[in-house]
Design a protein that fits this description.
Mean pLDDT: 94
Oligomer: single chain
Shape: globular
Order of helices and strands: EHHEHEHEHEHEE
Distance between the termini: 39 Å
C-alpha cells in the first residue's frame, strides 16, 4: 500500500485578532503538513518555538508612505515563501498581509480558503472584498454577512 502524501496547507494572517482566529484552527495543523505565515513581532517570535512559522514585515496602514514599501517587500517575500513551501491550499483569516499570498496561490492554481473576521458582523473587510472573487471557499462567521458575500458559507464562530 502506498503512503498517501499529506496536503501542504499554508495558514496566513496579520497580527492581533486575525492571528488569534487563525490559531483557533490548530487542530487542523495535526491533519496536514502545515506552515504559518504572519507578521514579525515579539509575540510571534515566541510562537515560533511552538509552530512552524515564517514572517513578513509588520506594515500598519496608518503610515501610507512606509506602508507602500513594506507591502511591496511583503509581496516578494510572500512569493519566496510560497515557492519554498509549495502549499496545496492557503487558509487565511485576513487581513492585508494575506492578500498577496492568496493571489499568488491563485496564480499557481492552488486552493484559497478565506475566513472573514469574527469582528466584522455587518460590513465586509477590505481584504475580504479583495479575496472573495478568487476564493475557492469563503467562510463567514456571522449569518448576516451572507448579504455581502452571497456565495459564502456560514460557518459560525471559530472561537
Amino acid at each position: 500500500m502506498k503512503n498517501k502524501k499529506r496536503k501542504k496547507v499554508l495558514f496566513i494572517s496579520s497580527l492581533g485578532g486575525h492571528l488569534t482566529q487563525l490559531l483557533q484552527l490548530e487542530p487542523l495543523f495535526k491533519e496536514y503538513d502545515y506552515h504559518i505565515v504572519t507578521e514579525n513581532s515579539v509575540i510571534t517570535k515566541e510562537l515560533q518555538k511552538q509552530y512552524n512559522m515564517s514572517f513578513l514585515v509588520y506594515g500598519a496602514r496608518n503610515y501610507p508612505f512606509k506602508y507602500i514599501f513594506k507591502f511591496s517587500y511583503n509581496v516578494f517575500k510572500s512569493l519566496f515563501i510560497f515557492l519554498r513551501e509549495k502549499p496545496d491550499v492557503i487558509v487565511s483569516t485576513g487581513a492585508h498581509t494575506a492578500v498577496p499570498m492568496c493571489y499568488i496561490a491563485k496564480l499557481f492554481r492552488k486552493k484559497v480558503i478565506f475566513i472573514e473576521s469574527f469582528a466584522k458582523t455587518s460590513t465586509p473587510t477590505i481584504s475580504g472584498k479583495m479575496i472573495y472573487p478568487i476564493a475557492d471557499l469563503f467562510i463567514v462567521q456571522w449569518e448576516g454577512m451572507l448579504k455581502h458575500y452571497p456565495n459564502a458559507v456560514y460557518g459560525g464562530s471559530i472561537y
